[in-house]
Amino acid sequence: MGDKEKKEQPVEKTGDPIISQIGDFKIYQFLFCALIFLCKFGTGWHTLGHIFLAAPTPQSCETGNVTDPCSDDCEEAKFDTSVFKSTIITEWNLTCNKKSLASMSQSIVMVGIMFGSMFFGMVADRCGRRPAFLGCCFMQLFSGLIVCLSPYFWFYCLFRFLVAFATGGTMTTSFVLIMEIIGPKKRELVAILYQIPFNIGHASLAIFAYFIRTWRWFQFSITIFSVVFVVYICLVPESPRWLFTTGRLDESIKILEHIAKVNKVPTDTIRPEIEAAHKVMAARTPTKKGNICDLFRTPYLRLKTICMANDWLVVCMVYYGTAQYISKLGGNIFMNNLIAASLGIPGTCLCVVLTKFLGRKITMMLSNGLSAIGLLLLVFLTGVDMKIQVACATLGLFGASITFPNAYLYGGELFPTVVRSNGVGLCSMVGRIGSIVAPLICELAAIKKWITPLVFGIFSVLAVIGTIFLPETRGMPLPETLEDGESFGRKKQEA
Fold first, then answer.
1. Distance of CA 455 to the CA centre of its chain
2. CB neighbours (10 Å) of residue 111?
3. Where in the numbering of this chain does the Major facilitator superfamily (MFS) profile domain appear (predicted)?
4. pTM confidence score
5. Which among 103, 48, 100, 109 has a CA at the least distance from the CA of 432?
6. Domain-by-domain residue ranges, the chain?
7. 477, 15 Cβ separation under 8 angstroms
């Protein structure tokens, strides 16, 4: 018994009944996060794989005295396959009057992510985090492999949509799983570093594409890694917090006892303390499962939902739009993508420091302000040296790279447990609208070069203003019920 007492260190008791049983961040949480992090590589690959699946492939006319391959006089056109042996452009001749179809296929991907994050968010809140997470992981694997076999363009679009649908679910459910098992002391660090695999996945696309120049094998290479999802069946349990909140105490206690044993903390008090905590929660409000409408039923929760959704809309629009804007400024497609994506890594690391010492709210305002400064400066500098333009656009992108992980962290802490997946899913859905319109905003540069950075800059300013109305969440216990969600962040009216 003496040895056991030496090994088992009591957990610091907090206002959070789950963290009070297993510890803030110990060995189990570390291993669990490392395991879940694996799925984020695939989200980066599938979200941005279009860059190389539909890479620019020049076309020339082989007919004598005809230079325009889109001319009616051109009897034979030929693609330049010196860089890419095949793309979806060459596969289905997406040129001339079909040129817009390539961009449309990427818009379909963003629509798929939008609806997938919302759908699987609702499934996770209604049926549990585990079935939603496993479902979208395996859907991503199988539909991604089928894309490689696409015989027709419409078939390709359909299954790319399904891949994206699953990818949106993976983004939402995996993040919620992590957020609900980490204590407030390490929550910001883990939630922010959780974005690093996405950045690495985005950057590594250039490496995949450099060595694999045919689109079918490229798609296969970024999909087959998902076979590792098989281990999730055995190693990813249901969220004990979700089980606790929905009244399934025996299941929650069983999982918490297993986690406590791995963490080498006492297990004998878990059942009585969890049962007592649930009675206190049940006395305040009947146990109920939330839905998306609950986010808008009460005034303060509604305001917080709208402001957080606005932050997501802006960061997705500015991040994807500015990255695309930079890539159009010229240069090597592999190097452009590698540099633009790699920029997210230092931005994410800086976000860790800023959210730790300044809080979520100030960091969100500063990063959006940084994007606004860089992009609005670019409005007045579109006629100067290209290096200065790239520097301004890079400043805007760097600001967005800080905002992105903070948006996940801030949103995950802001919404109560009963609607957390719905809330994060809704924000992700609204954010995807921003990523859908971002390419369209980039096209406005063809009218006037300064219009694109002006639109992105104005939206960044609006995000700064909207964040003013959000409460700080750093170090606070996660709100559990809808009543917690409404009162969380309000100034106390009574002593």
1. 23
2. 18
3. 35-475
4. 0.80
5. 109
6. 2-54+94-487
7. yes
